[in-house]
Specification:
34% of the residues lie in helices and 21% in strands. The protein is elongated and about 65 Å long. A 5-stranded antiparallel sheet has the order 3-2-1-5-4, with helices on both faces. Strands 8-7-6-9-10 form a 5-stranded parallel sheet, with helices on both faces. It is built from 7 helices and 10 strands.
Length: 265
């Protein structure tokens, strides 16, 4: 187990998320006893072991699904021949294994690197969120403007959503033009982000949504976009707008919806 905990600690220290599979209960003959652990990385590599063989391969596949969905599962594996409804082994026992995601923090993905993005960066940093910023303008998309954030100077059309957008991603569209807003929404729709919000007036939002719908975007998914973005606090300055956006994101994280006034709850 020393090697397992060494790899566990190194992964956390370097910010590399993974899943852990823990044997929590066994019946009859099984490869390992309760407490045995295996770590599974997003690329499918492992550290530690729960016994090897077919059981470990099945648990690894289930762990990769846990990594994809970020939802823990408790599964029972019957170590008997497949003809008898088991996993295809001859041990004859049963193992109950808990699989959980570890180290997956929420990420704020900001399209645009202007004044509002700068204010979002400052507040999100205090909240402890990971921050990634995308802007095609080299004078704005500079790492020194956003220390500690991942800054991508790239056209949205050149990005790959795989890995960039995850179930832990809170995406905010605050670009410098309607065309970029449209490209950002097209990029985000259908990739399972926890939150997608776009700045703009109600008229702008309607025009853009109608255009995207004509291009094939799903109306139901468009309706899930938080636009106009943020809570209605009468925000005007970039800092106030950023505060209203992040307040809405925290509400989605904690409550699953935008909140009522504290006075009314």
């Amino acid at each position: 187990m020393d090697e397992f905990y060494k790899a566990f600690r190194e992964a956390l220290e370097h910010g590399h998320p993974f899943a852990i599979a823990t044997v929590v209960r066994v019946h009859a003959s099984t490869p390992r006893e309760p407490g045995a652990k295996m770590g599974i990385r997003p690329d499918g590599s492992i550290f530690g072991t729960i016994g090897g063989g077919e059981l470990e391969e099945l648990v690894k596949a289930d762990a990769l699904e846990v990594i994809r969905t970020r939802k823990s599962v408790l599964k029972i594996y019957s170590l008997i021949p497949s003809a008898a409804g088991g996993i295809g082994t001859e041990c004859g026992g049963e193992a109950e294994i808990f699989i959980e995601p570890v180290g997956f923090g929420s990420k704020l993905l900001i399209f645009g690197a202007g004044h509002i993005a700068g204010a979002l960066y400052k507040i999100a940093s205090v909240l402890g969120m990971g921050i990634e910023i995308v802007d095609e303008r080299p004078e704005y998309a500079r790492a020194e403007r956003f220390p500690g954030a991942i800054v991508r100077c790239a056209e949205i059309s050149a990005l790959d959503a795989e890995g960039l957008v995850t179930p832990d991603t809170y995406a905010v569209v605050v670009t410098h033009g309607h065309g970029n807003d449209r490209e950002a929404l097209k990029f985000l729709l259908g990739h399972g982000a926890a939150y997608v919000g776009m700045i703009g007036s109600r008229r702008k939002v309607k025009v853009l949504f109608d255009l995207l719908a004509k291009e094939g975007a799903d109306r139901v998914e468009l309706a899930s976009v938080h636009a106009p973005i943020g809570l209605n606090i009468g925000a005007e300055s970039p800092q106030e707008i950023a505060l209203s956006i992040l307040a809405e994101i925290v509400a989605i994280q904690r409550l699953g919806k935008s909140p009522a006034s504290m006075k009314d709850t």
